[in-house]
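Quiz preparation item.
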């Protein structure tokens, strides 16, 4: 029986003081033996051990949490040093666990979010209030570093608000397709200028979203910021080519609405 073996090892270690480690009741060999037997027992009775462990935790939750908090406060330097020394090992273990338990983690997160909606909302609001300046700086830095991505997200959001049909639109692909020429005034756009510059390249909806247009590569074109601003939500029908495009595009929209 495991209990008898542990008792026997303990007794033996108490007698052989030369082999015992300072501050422990067992010598190294006996400790290893007990660890192996404990591991084997946990493997054989996994569900039983987990159930008992969870029950013990929930029965003594408040006491355990307060003890854990006290220990962390008393050993801040020690814990931070340990975390720094084992940073890579902990990261690798977390990644491995996440890969093996992806579905389990998703379910747990959903359950937590459902059960703690008010708590999460309150925490977010409090954090935003306490970190207004920091958030503002981070947002500005992110926008500067990811101008195209942010502009694409803004256009997509506007289209969704209008309940328009939305398909992936890559700004660079559209600009390359139109050869970096404004399709309104037929002159080249300026590359590398600030986003408030009049000749800055923007995405213009040929049939405006306000007129029932879609957000997809077929319905967007390269345009100067100034030309796009002047055009606003008006239809541009200057050439026969544009008239043909508008009529064919409207037919496609009608077909999509029927299906």
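Solution:
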């Amino acid at each position: 029986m495991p209990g008898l073996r542990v008792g026997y090892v303990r007794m033996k270690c108490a007698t052989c003081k030369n082999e015992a480690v300072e501050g422990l009741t067992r010598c190294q060999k006996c400790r290893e033996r007990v660890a192996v037997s404990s591991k084997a027992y946990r493997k054989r009775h996994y569900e039983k051990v987990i159930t008992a462990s969870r029950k013990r935790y929930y029965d003594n939750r408040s006491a355990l949490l307060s003890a854990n908090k006290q220990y962390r406060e008393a050993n801040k330097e020690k814990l931070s040093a340990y975390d720094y020394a084992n940073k890579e090992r902990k990261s690798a273990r977390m990644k491995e666990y996440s890969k093996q338990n992806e579905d389990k983690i998703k379910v747990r997160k959903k359950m937590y979010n459902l059960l703690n909606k008010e708590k999460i909302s309150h925490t977010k609001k409090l954090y935003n209030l306490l970190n207004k300046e920091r958030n503002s700086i981070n947002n500005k830095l992110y926008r500067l570093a990811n101008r195209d991505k942010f502009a694409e997200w803004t256009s997509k959001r506007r289209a969704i608000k209008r309940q328009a049909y939305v398909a992936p639109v890559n700004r660079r692909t559209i600009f390359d397709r139109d050869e970096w020429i404004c399709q309104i005034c037929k002159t080249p756009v300026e590359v590398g200028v600030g986003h408030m510059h009049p000749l800055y390249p923007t995405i213009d909806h040929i049939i405006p979203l306000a007129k029932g247009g879609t957000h997809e590569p077929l319905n967007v074109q390269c345009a100067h910021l100034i030309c796009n601003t002047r055009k606003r939500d008006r239809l541009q029908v200057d050439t026969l080519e544009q008239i043909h495009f508008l009529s064919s595009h409207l037919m496609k929209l009608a077909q999509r609405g029927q299906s």
